Amino acid sequence: MPVAASAIYFLNLRGDVLINRLYRDDVGGNMVDAFRTHIMQTKELGTCPVRQIGGCSFFYMRISNVYIVIVVSSNANVACAFKFVVEAVALFKSYFGGAFDEDAIRNNFVLIYELLDEIMDFGYPQNLSPEILKLYITQEGVRSPFSSKPTDRPVPNATLQVTGAVGWRREGLVYKKNEVFLDIVESVNLLMSSKGSVLRCDVTGKILMKCFLSGMPDLKLGLNDKIGLEKESQLKSRPTKSGKTIELDDVTFHQCVNLTRFNSEKTVSFVPPDGEFELMKYRITEGVNLPFRVLPTIKELGRTRMEVNVKIKSVFGAKMFALGVVIKIPVPKQTAKTSFQVTSGRAKYNASIDCLVWKIRKFPGQTEPTMSAEVELISTMAEKKSWTRPPIQMEFQVPMFTASGLRVRFLKVWEKSGYNTVEWVRYITKAGSYEISLMSRANGNPPFLAKVELDEFRFLQS
Amino acid sequence: MAPPAQAHRSPSPSQPSGKGEVSDLKSQLRQLAGSRAPGIDDSKRELFKKVISYMTIGIDVSAVFGEMVMCSATSDIVLKKMCYLYVGNYAKVNPDLALLTINFLQRDCKDEDPMIRGLALRSLCSLRVANLVEYLVGPLGLGLKDNNSYVRTVAVIGVLKLYHISAPTCIDADFPPTLKHLMLNDPDPQVVANCLSALQEIWSLEASTSEEASREREALISKPVIYYLLNRIKEFSEWAQCLVLELVAKYVPLDSNEIFDIMNLLEDRLQHANGAVVLSTIKVFLHLTLSMTDVHQQVYERIKAPLLTLVSSGSPEQSYAVLSHLHILVMRAPFIFASDYKHFYCQYNEPSYVKKLKLEMLTAVANESNTYEIVTELCEYAANVDIPIARESIRAVGKIALQQYDVNAIVDRLLQFLEMEKDYVTAEALVLVKDLLRKYPQWSHDCIAVVGSISSQNVQEPKAKAALIWMLGEYSQDMQDAPYILESLTENWEEEPSAEVRLHLLTAVMKCFFKRPPETQKVLGAALAAGLADFHQDVHDRALFYHRLLQYNVSVAERVVNPPKQAVSVFADTQSSEIKDRIFDEFNSLSVVYQKPSYMFTDKDYRGPFEFSDELGNLSIAAESADNVVPAQGVEANDKDLLLSTSEKEEIRGATFNVSGYSAPLYDSSAASVQSELAIISSTSAGSAPSSSLAIDDLLGLGLSAAPAPEPASVPPSLKLNSKAILDPGTFQQKWRQLPISLSQEFSLSPEGVAALTTPQALLWHMQGHSIHCIASGGHSPNFKFFFFAQKAEESSNFLVECIINTSSAKAQVKIKADDQSTSQAFSDVFQSALSKFSV
């Protein structure tokens, strides 16, 4: 059994039940008490998302200010259970129009009850796709609970489409203007030493699509990925065009993509769902173009003073620019006073997160702004508790830039009526976990002073 | 009709009791029930919403059941759904009221709108009231034949629900064969998937009683069914795909061609966006190729990339699930991620459960080529703010050191940890250095120099302290100060809370004594004296053992305590390979996350006695049974079977007879063991070498006379009991009735004692060793009840004891009755000391 969930609970942070659904009788009704006493009220909370209490296992996830708890009594499939919760939350969000939190649940509890009945029956996941469910689960009370219009009865043949051959798309859609929007969103994860050497780096990307197309269109997407290009040149027996090709480590697709055809021909072809969806996800570890390099120097001048200098270099094209750049430079807890000099943007000290926060709203390419700050510390008695030097963290968005270098080469749309489509493509690169270490490996702080070279030597010998 | 609204139980005082609101609702609903005015549905909706919201926050609104049913005659689907929800919630607790709903639900099951038919059928099957099952069969039969697939999917699960309410009704109505037919023929994939879920459950449960069912269960994993499902796999929803793949993983193909066919068919599933599908596919691949070694290796190569993607995408909880699976894979094939170790570096903001698994992965993938990088990274984490993660990192470094041949560099790192002067870092590092020395004694010189400089006062954790003391003993010849450090530790014997540390201290002092006798002699005496006076049984026994060993022959003692040691080559694995294989069989399930096979956490027998569900489930029962026990004492006079409630009688009688059957030989042996301690000491001191033993004692400054042996903690009871006491049950009952309770006390049990009580017999043997005999016993975890008796050694004065032990609270309630009231306190002390020594 992938998941035969016995119950699902939605709790707020205090542990009050917002809504719950018992699917099976094989667990007691007081399971939520068990969760409260054995997990929420102990230090266990957050130490592990799967816990066994008695004969039951609890899977829980926190999403904004809500805990979602699934209780099972059998040897369930963990990955499936978590994926179910994630999908269910996505479904609720699409119904509520964005936020999923305690208030949204309280305002829509009737709707959630209905959805909980449809997406899972007797503990087995059923249909979770918003496109289909929205055809027959309608509560026009959703937007304003007290507006009163008589409900339309669901289209009688809606259920036929619930499980039809193209489960994700309704027939008979008509748009005046046929448009497709493609968003390539990449997030860069980086760990860099303070001297600028890359310790770990990868890019996770996704292609988001918004389709407003009539009828049952067939789409084909071409990227500049290596395998696809090679296959193409093989088929057309002409050499690959010069230019950058990207090696994707791994790709996953939305269920609408014909995987067999991808495996044989390496083309991404599909009949898209209507509206917004995530077409594909990919991962890249080689040949990543980092948008920023950060060079920090931190000097501890005695016990009560510190000097922080940070230089940031934008390494994308001069015509491009990054938006919403935020650099968080950690400082010790006992920081008393700070003074700054920045060549661009604004900086201030945020005591609640123990960081100097430097914000640059618009950051052009090929520039090198710097910040120098002086930090005064209160001298404390607890000398031994030395500062652990957390990493510098960075947030940014760079439009029209992909860290992987991925480009859309073409997007073809076929429909039997032969209409023209307008295609829009956007690229954006965001910071995932973009961290610059301030630790010893970089600047030779204790505890591994000088020993490092020696170790290296020994390793070479062996 | 509806019961009065008295049954409210508002969950917290802050919430409205709901009493007024409920009666309000009731009258409003009544007004609406008959009305056909336009716009009435909207007012109904608002009211229904109110009812449901009360229900959600825990106010009992079952009082309006009748009115809700009356209002349900509507064509508004939203109203209907709310009504179904309400009915489903209260039907189980109000079976009589549920009957009211049958009518309208049955009518709705024939509605022209398939949505309504489906919803009504689902609600009908969710009532879960056993005496209504007869009404289910008809609508279910129609539902399975419905021309709308939505109704059929609901009906299929409905059959499963019916089976759980009343299995015979489901089987008699011939539903399983119908489901099988649907599974193999229905055009709708969700119907097929639901049939598969239902049939798997029904046939697995039936299989234990019916041979046909077990044949049918086997037939599910036969070639035709598997091929049929595989050929349709792309039609299924992602969840149904998981279900099918799980089934395919159980299938045993005939030859390798079949295996390759299946794998080729499923390969594209590895690209699926749903991680659960990917993991299920991986399970199929791994299980299919178990017997084909080289293909199996290729599978590992193939699944690597999708797995790494799953780790880095999705929520931390999902990564956690995937990392657990990676861990079991890397244990089986360490090479698989060796070059991808950087994927397991921890990110600063990750939750600690993910970090912890990543550390385990780093430990597991470390090999000669990547050790340097991994250990460098791990050392960074040792300074982490999150102390548990810092500890785990140090342990990880240690584990890697124990795996590798070239430990040179790692030893240096560990020694640097010792110099970091953070208590927890020092503690973890000490334990690791100890393990390292056991495996690589050649490093002793470097390590000891550093260890020697650690002040024992800075080490508080028992494990670390024990490790430090072990090193002090083992390498006392190399450590200048060893005897003196041991001496100061011995001086603080009383303050040392951990028995483990005291045990190690005893042994270390002994070792040190043989290496550096003149300096250690005094400490040894002090340690042995302190050990003999220790209240912990093991410490006491070990001290006594060393003492006698020294008295017997010093050179033998040296050979026992300080034998030439061999380096440990491999530390014992905590898990047997059989268990690991079972976990692997259950790949893609909770077993992997818990790292134990499913029977260990789903089988009731395997869970410990202190588990929560038992506790929770039995709370009320336990309270009741305690109540039952106490009044039983009150009405003892006219209770013929005083000792036993009638239900337990037979069983316990048997047990009692058993005890008396085995009693004779046991009495002798227990008597012997009682005296053995004294006997040995007197024989050695008086007989073989009196002078030498005296000399040793003098040498050690123990200041003990040769006999009797010191037994300060277990003070020999002033009261002597007859080890061969006899009392027949009839007399016992008579006496119990006649005598007043002279003492009633509550004792605590040691955790070891509680653990040992899993077999109540153990307590009986144990108490017999202390000349306290059992005459009757009974009960089930967590409550046990025993009746004991004892007799004074010289005269035939009896003590009778009733002892009720609750294992979950680790308390024993003891009632003592005695012929001679004046000695009952003394006996109570004896009883308590005997009980406190009870352990595994």
From TrEMBL, chain A:
Domain of life the protein comes from: Eukaryota
Protein name, as recorded: MHD domain-containing protein
Lineage: Eukaryota, Viridiplantae, Streptophyta, Embryophyta, Tracheophyta
From TrEMBL, chain B:
Keywords carried by this UniProt record: Membrane, Protein transport, Transport
GO CC, one annotated term: clathrin adaptor complex
SMART domains (UniProt xref): B2-adapt-app_C
Region (Disordered): 1-26
Top-level division of the source organism's lineage: Eukaryota
Single annotated GO MF: clathrin binding
Subcellular location: Endomembrane system
GO biological process: intracellular protein transport; vesicle-mediated transport
Location, primary (coarse class): membrane
Keyword DNA-binding in annotation: no
SUPFAM superfamilies named in the record: ARM repeat
Location of the Beta-adaptin appendage C-terminal subdomain domain: 719-836
Pfam families assigned: Adaptin_N, B2-adapt-app_C
InterPro entries in alphabetical order: AP_beta, AP_complex_bsu_1_2_4, ARM-like, ARM-type_fold, B-adaptin_app_sub_C, Clathrin/coatomer_adapt-like_N, TBP_dom_sf
Subunit: Adaptor protein complexes are heterotetramers composed of two large adaptins (beta-type subunit and alpha-type or delta-type or epsilon-type or gamma-type subunit), a medium adaptin (mu-type subunit) and a small adaptin (sigma-type subunit).
Role, per record: Subunit of clathrin-associated adaptor protein complex that plays a role in protein sorting in the late-Golgi/trans-Golgi network (TGN) and/or endosomes. The AP complexes mediate both the recruitment of clathrin to membranes and the recognition of sorting signals within the cytosolic tails of transmembrane cargo molecules.
Membership in a protein family: Belongs to the adaptor complexes large subunit family.
Name under which the protein is recorded: Beta-adaptin-like protein
Organism per entry: Citrus sinensis (Sweet orange)
Lineage: Eukaryota, Viridiplantae, Streptophyta, Embryophyta, Tracheophyta
